[in-house]
Amino acid sequence: MIPPRTILAPVDFSDASRASLQCAATLAPRWSASLHVVHVLDPLLAAASQFHHVDLAADARADLEGFCRESRLDGAAPALHIGVGAAAEVICETAVAQGGDLVVARSRGLSGP
Predict the structure, then answer these.
(1) I need a surface site. Which of 39, 63, 92, 109 has the fewest CB within 10 A?
(2) Angstrom distance (rounded) from CA 19 to CA 51
(3) pTM
């Protein structure tokens, strides 16, 4: 849909993902779009934390809230999503589930962050 109504911003807490989140947060109000931020947990890490009775998803949500707050999104109130699995698959599944029209992600390239 043009203009997009739902924008998804996947983040991994890196500086690159902060930049793409800020870009998505700038675009969302211009198009009156909702903003959804997704962070994906490694499935092995999630399973190990569950085995040790650690709520990794809750910790990740708190970290994601802080990351969004520190990113200064100019009043945008994004919906937050925590997923477990292969990052590309979870991002696509979240985009489909939320009716995402645009995914704003920054490439890190082969040479580093």
Answers:
(1) 109
(2) 34
(3) 0.88
